[in-house]
Specification:
single chain, 168 residues, mainly beta, three-stranded antiparallel sheet, 14 strands, globular
Length: 168
């Protein structure tokens, strides 16, 4: 287990990071989670901590579970540094509470997931953003699943959270 010092809410915290991953600063994106080992397709990459909280008290790192409930932690955890990609290499399994590789991930490759597979309306919570993933199929402004076309929604179906599946 590695440790990284992170400053959050004017407190210096020791973030414990599993040896299989590392936190790296990426210019233009900020901190990101990278693989330290090879992960095979279907393999668990990292777990997901947190508890259900009301949307009004959630942090920007929280994961949407229902229309008004988010899975959140009080302080940063390693999985908070998994950045968005329009061509991700993991999916979030909310039932098992883990990120699973959807393709082989090599050492020193950034671990990513598509935020549009869990978030319904990021504009509503003021967490929308301009994507910097660099993927050829980048969607640009990431606003939430509700803003996608029917075709874009259908393409994401295998990766969707139970909440977003109920929106199809």
């Amino acid at each position: 287990m590695q440790a990284v010092l992170i400053k959050q809410h004017n407190r210096l915290l020791r973030l414990r990071i599993p040896n299989e991953v590392k936190v790296v600063y990426v210019w233009g994106k900020g901190l990101a989670l990278f693989a330290q080992k090879k992960f095979k397709k279907g393999e668990k990459v990292i777990g997901l901590k947190g508890k259900l909280v009301a949307a009004s008290t959630s942090t920007p790192e929280a994961i949407q579970v229902t229309g008004t409930k988010f899975l959140d932690t009080k302080y940063l955890v390693p999985e908070d540094f998994i950045n968005h990609s329009c061509s991700p290499n993991t999916r979030l399994d909310l039932v098992k509470r883990e990120f699973t590789a959807i393709k082989n991930i090599l050492p020193n490759e950034e671990i990513t997931f598509n935020y549009l597979t869990t978030e319904w309306d990021m504009k509503r919570w003021d967490t929308d953003f301009q994507c910097a993933c660099g993927s050829p199929n980048c969607l640009g402004h990431i606003k939430g699943f509700r803003y996608l076309t029917h075709r874009q929604k259908a393409n994401l179906k295998p990766l969707l959270s139970p909440f977003l599946l109920s929106k199809l």
